[in-house]
Automatic annotation (TrEMBL):
Keywords: Cell membrane, Membrane, Transmembrane, Transmembrane helix, Transport. Belongs to the lactate permease family. GO terms for cellular component: plasma membrane. The chain crosses the membrane at residues 6-22, 34-55, 61-82, 103-123, 129-151, 158-176, 202-221, 233-253, 259-276, 324-345, 365-386, 407-426, 493-522, 534-551. It comes from Candidatus Bilophila faecipullorum. Uptake of L-lactate across the membrane. Can also transport D-lactate and glycolate. The keyword Transmembrane helix applies. This is L-lactate permease. It comes from the Bacteria. It is a multi-pass membrane protein. It is found in: Cell membrane.
Length: 552
């Protein structure tokens, strides 16, 4: 069967998911199981996989999904623990003292704080942590989820202490090492050069996104429904972008791909908050949403808005923010390999090798290394003592969290099982390319010399399918290398476009959308969010394509 026909079949599960969720507004709890079924049948009928092998891949996906669900559980638990302890209202009071302007709060929390969490942990953690915080500050749930998903893009290439580059590009390691004798680069040097080019591709959107998303916020969720109120805060957006970009670029071009997002956001957050308190570039007129009773019902979900406009402290700001400070500190010390804790925590795992007897179909849960366990759940437990919570408050926080897990569990089990079949389809009796590779090869055939302008969308496709920039790079980095070689293009630039594409794909990938919906009580509205985040995703790819073409 030709690659084009394989691609036509491979795209069917994706189309089913999109048509049902985006077009027909089905919840992911119904759409994703059906998409999984289409994928499973395609794998058996077209790729020749045995039903037993498809079942083993499905179980592999279930194990991986449990890891994602642990992160979602921990993020929701933090939210309700702080809500029941009085810490969240204290944070709301403190944020009002920094600025009551919701545009400013969106930048501090959704843009900068989330970038720090991405730099430390990655893997969907930022949206799961920042979106509930914006929700608690008085944002409509839909707005909070969309803003955090879109902002969870530019830091992702260097997220999780550089994992998407350092680990994601590992299929190229043997190719590079074989070429060292002929004057080629080492793998470490190549990763650094890819990172440098990736910063240049991200750079325009680091400045464009905050202005765009504030305009979106005021246009679709503001009292007057105008873009101009969001655009009016453009000076503050530029200030925030500069705060992040300067340390981000310095670290990427001097130290390498592990720490640009982490250091850029950490330094940027400190400077941004200090400047905000001093009124630097802060808009003169304060902007806010209407009272929640006037909101469109589609904006909110199962986690109700408080309706409060004035908040009161129940403790000091230091005590209230301490759980988040602990989360940040623990993420840093457990993610930097040189500190030793990363390897130790990663050694604790529940492993499943050769599932159902099929060689190579394995999965594991690093139950202590997952951020849902350490630090989220650990910090939630510490917060009980830190905030002096009583037994009833603790019980309410935990029971509410478990109740919120039903919908995301169904959706994520099906979605990640689909991903597992997608990736595993490459092991077939006829030597056919895997489903994602067939899609990528077909796209490449129709683009030719225009590849630099479109390469990032393959990375985005990989992230959309797999839910991970790292996995997208693992799937497609060698394919991008070969495309660059065949078209006689600079390989480091095309591979950088892949790494950036995987980052921008985070704003539309089903995993992240389901997780973000879960933590703000919007399970079942995933299609509405993807319909919205698709447009900044498309714009991002256009801008990256222009920069990649210029660099070549």
């Amino acid at each position: 069967m030709s690659v084009e026909l394989l691609a036509a079949v491979a795209v069917l599960p994706i189309l089913v998911a999109l048509i049902l969720m985006v077009g027909m507004r089905w919840p992911a709890t119904k759409a994703m199981p059906l998409a999984w079924l289409v994928c499973a049948v395609s794998a058996i009928v077209v790729w020749g996989l045995t039903p037993g092998y498809v079942l083993s891949l499905t179980l592999q996906g279930f194990v991986t999904a449990i890891g994602v669900l642990i992160i979602v559980f921990g993020a929701i638990l933090i939210l309700f623990t702080l809500e029941k302890s009085g810490g969240m209202e204290t944070i709301q009071y403190g944020m009002q003292n920094i600025s009551r302007d919701k545009r400013v709060q969106a930048i501090i929390i959704g843009y900068m704080f989330a970038a720090f969490i991405e730099g430390a942990a990655g893997f969907g953690t930022p949206a799961a942590l920042a979106a509930p915080l914006l929700l608690a500050l008085g944002f409509p749930a839909m707005a909070a989820a969309i803003v955090c998903l879109v902002f969870n893009s530019f830091p992702v290439t260097f997220g999780a202490v550089g994992t998407p580059v350092v680990v994601g590009l590992s299929p190229l390691k043997s190719i590079l090492e074989a070429d060292i004798a002929n004057g080629g680069m080492t793998y470490a040097a190549f990763c650094k050069v890819v990172g440098e080019n990736a910063t240049l591709m991200h750079l325009p959107m680091i400045f464009i996104l905050p202005v765009l998303m504030l305009g979106f916020l005021t246009r679709y969720y503001g009292p007057t429904r105008t873009w101009s109120e969001g655009f009016a805060a453009w000076k503050y957006c530029m200030f925030a972008a500069v705060c992040f970009t300067i340390p981000y670029m310095i670290v990427a071009w001097t130290l390498g791909p592990e720490l640009p997002s982490l250091v850029g956001a950490l330094i940027g957050l400190g400077v941004l908050v200090y400047g905000t308190k001093k009124g630097f570039c802060v808009p003169e007129k304060t902007w806010d949403f209407e009272h929640h009773e006037k909101w469109d019902p589609s904006w909110t979900g199962s986690i109700a808005a408080t309706g409060k406009t004035e908040f009161h402290p129940h403790m000091s700001q230091v005590r209230a923010w301490m759980p988040y400070a602990l989360i940040g500190a623990i993420l840093v010390i457990t993610r930097i390999p040189e500190l030793g804790l990363k390897a130790w925590l990663s050694s604790f795992k529940i492993g499943f090798t050769d599932i159902l007897g099929y060689q190579g179909v394995s999965a594991s849960i690093d139950y202590l290394f997952l951020p849902g366990t350490i630090p989220f759940t650990l910090v939630a437990i510490i917060t009980i003592l830190l905030h002096g919570m009583n037994a009833n408050a603790v019980k309410e926080a935990w029971t509410t969290t478990f109740a919120k897990m039903k919908a995301p569990t169904i959706a994520l089990l099906a979605a990640v099982a689909l991903v597992s079949i997608f990736r595993g389809s490459g092991v077939n009796p006829d030597g056919m390319p895997s489903m994602p590779l067939a899609l990528a090869q077909t796209v490449a055939e129709f683009t030719g010399s225009a590849w630099p302008a479109l390469a990032s969308y393959v990375g985005g496709l990989g992230a959309f399918i797999t839910g991970s920039n790292t996995v997208s790079d693992l799937l497609f980095s060698e394919f991008q290398w070969n495309m660059a070689t065949n078209l006689e293009l600079p390989r480091q630039i095309i591979v950088a476009a892949q790494a950036v594409g995987g980052a921008m794909g985070n704003m539309v990938c089903i995993h992240n959308v389901v997780a973000a919906c879960a933590v703000v009580g919007l399970s079942g509205r995933e299609g509405m969010i993807i319909r919205t985040t698709f447009w900044p995703f498309l714009l991002y790819g256009v801008v990256v394509g222009i920069v990649a073409t210029i660099l070549i």
